[in-house]
C-alpha cells in the first residue's frame, strides 16, 4: 500500500486502513468546479458525507466564465448554499437581435418563458466554496491531482498525488466532476465522441454605466423590409440582453452583450476558428490577455465599439464621447460538442463537463452540470440508505444523458445560425433573419428566455421511473402547501426529505388547526405511506394547475413529477412509488 490511506467515512487522515470496508455513506468527488462542489453540498443536504479532491488551492478561480442561470437553478443553489444569489444576479428580459446595424423584429416571447438571470460563474463558485468549507459533511483535499481509479464490487479507490506525496482515497462511490479533460472518465475507459472546436469565443466583463432596460419605444426604427412581424413588447423590469449578428463592428461574426449585476456587461465575440490553437481538442482554457486576438489593445477597441453601439441604442444616447468603462476580465475559450458514451460505469458516475460539452447557446454548461447533480444526489442518497436498489443509479445515465443529447441537438441547430459552415447554412441564416424561413423557431431558440434555455423542461419524459400521465416528467410548479405537522410552506421546500405525495384537496385552507389531517382520505393515505421502503411525505394543497380535486401527484426529491394519479387510480400509488425509486418491474 503506497503512502497514506483515507477512508471517507471518518474525515480524518489516517494510517493504512486496508481491510476496512468503507462505510455506507461515503462518496469521493473528483473536481471542485461548480458541478463537484454542488454535488458535495447536495449530498450533504441529504446527510451523505463526501470528500472533494481538486488540484486547486481552495480559492475561487480567476475569470468570470459562464453567466446565465434559470430561476429554478438559482433556487437549487439557494438550497445548497443558503445564500440568495438573486440579489447578485440580473434578471434578463427578451433578447434584442440586430443584424447589420438594424433591429430584427422578433416573435413574441413564450407566454411562460423561464426567467433567466445573469450571474458570473465566479460569484456562484464563491458561494459554493463558502458553503462547502462550512459543511461538516464535506471534506476538501486541495492540491490533490487524481492519477488513477480502481473499482471492485463494493468500493472505488482513487490514487491522488497531494503536497505530501501519493494518497489513496476509498469510498463506495466516485463522482467524476473533473471537467472536460476528465481523468476519471479516461480511467473508466469511457469514450467522449462529438465535434471538437465548433466555435471560438472571446469573453470580456466590462464595468460601465449604461441603461440596462431598453423599452420598445427607445428602439431605433426597424428596417421596414424586415418588419414582417411586430416587435415584441418589452417586459417592464428585467434588463435587455443583445445579440448583434454581422454587426458593422464585427463583420461576419456575432456579438452578445449580456447585463450582469453591478453595472457589469458580459460581452462575447464569436471569433474565426484558428486551427491548431488549442493544445488538445477537448480543452477549454483561459488564455492570458496577450497575443492576437486577445491582445489588450484589440480587446479595448472591440469593447469600445460595442459600448458605443449600446449607448446609441439607449433612450438618451450620448455620442460625444465613448462611455467611461473598466475592463474587468477577458478570456477566450473554444467550444466543443461532445457527449460521454456512459454516465455510469459500475461505482463511477460522471457529471458536468466531464460528461458533456454543449455550445452555450443551447445550454449554459454550469446549469447543465447543476441539473446533473440535482438528478444524481437523491439517487445516490437513496441507494446508500437502502431506500432503493443500485439500479436506480442506472437511470441517472439514461435521464441525464438523454437530456444532454437533446441540448447537443439544439446546439447544432444554433450553430447553423451562429456559425454557418456551408453556403447553404449562410443562406439559411439570411432567410431566417429576413423572416422567410423558420424565423420564429430559430430566433426563439436563441432567446435566453426561450424553450432552449429551459434546461429543467420536460426532459425526463419516457424515463422508466415515471408512471405515464399528464405533466409527468416535468418540473413542479411551486404552490403553497400544508404539511402533516401543521406547517404551511412551499412545495419546493418539501423536497429534501424524500419523495413527496401531494394531494389536491380544494377547501383545505378553510380548516382550522390540524383538523384536515383526520378528514377524508388522509388517515388511510398516511397509513399507506408509513409502510413504504422509502421516505415519502404527505402534503396537501387546495389547487394545482392541471390537476383535478383529489388527484395525487407523486414528486421525486429532485422536483420532477413521477406520477399523476386521478382519484380512481389511487390504488397504484405504492406501485408508482416503487417505480420512482427504481424498484418497479
Ligand atoms: C473563458 C471562459 C469562458 C466561459 N464562458 C462560458 C459561457 O459563457 N457559457 C458556458 O456555458 N460555459 C462557459 N465556459 C465553460 C464553463 O466555465 C465550464 O463549462 C464549467 O466550468 C464546467 O464546470 P464543471 O464543474 O463541470 O467543470 P470545471 O469547472 O472544469 O471544474 C473541474 C475541476 O476539476 C479539477 N480537476 C481537473 N482534473 C483534475 C485531476 N486530475 N485531479 C483533481 N482535480 C482535477 C479542476 O481543477 C477543476 O476545479 C467558459 C469557460 C472559459 C474558460
UniProtKB/TrEMBL annotation:
Signal peptide: none annotated. It comes from the Bacteria. Transmembrane segments: none annotated. Its cofactor is FAD. InterPro entries: FAD-bd, FAD/NAD-bd_sf, RIFMO-like. One of its GO terms (molecular function) is FAD binding. This is Monooxygenase. It comes from Embleya hyalina.
Amino acid at each position: 500500500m503506497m503512502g497514506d490511506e483515507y477512508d471517507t467515512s471518518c474525515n480524518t487522515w489516517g494510517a493504512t486502513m486496508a481491510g476496512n470496508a468503507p462505510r455506507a455513506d461515503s462518496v469521493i468527488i473528483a473536481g471542485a468546479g461548480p458541478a463537484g462542489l454542488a454535488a458535495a453540498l447536495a449530498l450533504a443536504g441529504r446527510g451523505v458525507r463526501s470528500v472533494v479532491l481538486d488540484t486547486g488551492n481552495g480559492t475561487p478561480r480567476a475569470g468570470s466564465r459562464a453567466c446565465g442561470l434559470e430561476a429554478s437553478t438559482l433556487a437549487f443553489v439557494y438550497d445548497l448554499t443558503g445564500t440568495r444569489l438573486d440579489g447578485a444576479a440580473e434578471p434578463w428580459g427578451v433578447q434584442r437581435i440586430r443584424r447589420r446595424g438594424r433591429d430584427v423584429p422578433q416573435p413574441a416571447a413564450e407566454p411562460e418563458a423561464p426567467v433567466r438571470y445573469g450571474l458570473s460563474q465566479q460569484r456562484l463558485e464563491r458561494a459554493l466554496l463558502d458553503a462547502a468549507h462550512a459543511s461538516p459533511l464535506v471534506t476538501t483535499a486541495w492540491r490533490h491531482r487524481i492519477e488513477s481509479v480502481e473499482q471492485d464490487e463494493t468500493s472505488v479507490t482513487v490514487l491522488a498525488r497531494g503536497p505530501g506525496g501519493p494518497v489513496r482515497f476509498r469510498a463506495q462511490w466516485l463522482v467524476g466532476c473533473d471537467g472536460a479533460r476528465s481523468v476519471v472518465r479516461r480511467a473508466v475507459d469511457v469514450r467522449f465522441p462529438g465535434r471538437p472546436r465548433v466555435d471560438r469565443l472571446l469573453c470580456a466583463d466590462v464595468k460601465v454605466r449604461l441603461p440596462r432596460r431598453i423599452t420598445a419605444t427607445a428602439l431605433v426604427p426597424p428596417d421596414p423590409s424586415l418588419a414582417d412581424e411586430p416587435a415584441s413588447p418589452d417586459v417592464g423590469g428585467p434588463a435587455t440582453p443583445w445579440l448583434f449578428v454581422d454587426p458593422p463592428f464585427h463583420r461576419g461574426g456575432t456579438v452578445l452583450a449580456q447585463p450582469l449585476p453591478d453595472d457589469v456587461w458580459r460581452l462575447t465575440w464569436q471569433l474565426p476558428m484558428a486551427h491548431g490553437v488549442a493544445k488538445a481538442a477537448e480543452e477549454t482554457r483561459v488564455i492570458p490577455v496577450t497575443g492576437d486576438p486577445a491582445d489588450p489593445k484589440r480587446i479595448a477597441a472591440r469593447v469600445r465599439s460595442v459600448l458605443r453601439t449600446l449607448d446609441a441604442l439607449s433612450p438618451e444616447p450620448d455620442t460625444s464621447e465613448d462611455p467611461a468603462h473598466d475592463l474587468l476580465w477577458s478570456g477566450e475559450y473554444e467550444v466543443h460538442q461532445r457527449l460521454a458514451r456512459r454516465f455510469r460505469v459500475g461505482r463511477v458516475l460522471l457529471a458536468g463537463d466531464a460528461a458533456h460539452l454543449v455550445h452555450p447557446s443551447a445550454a449554459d454548461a454550469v446549469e447543465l452540470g447543476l441539473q446533473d447533480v440535482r438528478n444524481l444526489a437523491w439517487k445516490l442518497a437513496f441507494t446508500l440508505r437502502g431506500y432503493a436498489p443500485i439500479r436506480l443509479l442506472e437511470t441517472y445515465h439514461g435521464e441525464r444523458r438523454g437530456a444532454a443529447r437533446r441540448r447537443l441537438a439544439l446546439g447544432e441547430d444554433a450553430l447553423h445560425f451562429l456559425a454557418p459552415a456551408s453556403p447553404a447554412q449562410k443562406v439559411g441564416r439570411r432567410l431566417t433573419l429576413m423572416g422567410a424561413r423558420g424565423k420564429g423557431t430559430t430566433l426563439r431558440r436563441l432567446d435566453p428566455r426561450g424553450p432552449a434555455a429551459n434546461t429543467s423542461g420536460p426532459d425526463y419524459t419516457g424515463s422508466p421511473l415515471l408512471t405515464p400521465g399528464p405533466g409527468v416528467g416535468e418540473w413542479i410548479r411551486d404552490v403553497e402547501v400544508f404539511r402533516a405537522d401543521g406547517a404551511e410552506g412551499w412545495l419546493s421546500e418539501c423536497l429534501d426529505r424524500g419523495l413527496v405525495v401531494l394531494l389536491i384537496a380544494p377547501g383545505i385552507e378553510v380548516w382550522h388547526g390540524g383538523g384536515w389531517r383526520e378528514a377524508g382520505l388522509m388517515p388511510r393515505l398516511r397509513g399507506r405511506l408509513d409502510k413504504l421502503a422509502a421516505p415519502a411525505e404527505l402534503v396537501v394543497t387546495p389547487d394545482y394547475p392541471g390537476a383535478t380535486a383529489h388527484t395525487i401527484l407523486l414528486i421525486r426529491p429532485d422536483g420532477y413529477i413521477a406520477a399523476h394519479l386521478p382519484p380512481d387510480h389511487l390504488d397504484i400509488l405504492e406501485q408508482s412509488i416503487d417505480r420512482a425509486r427504481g424498484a418497479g418491474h
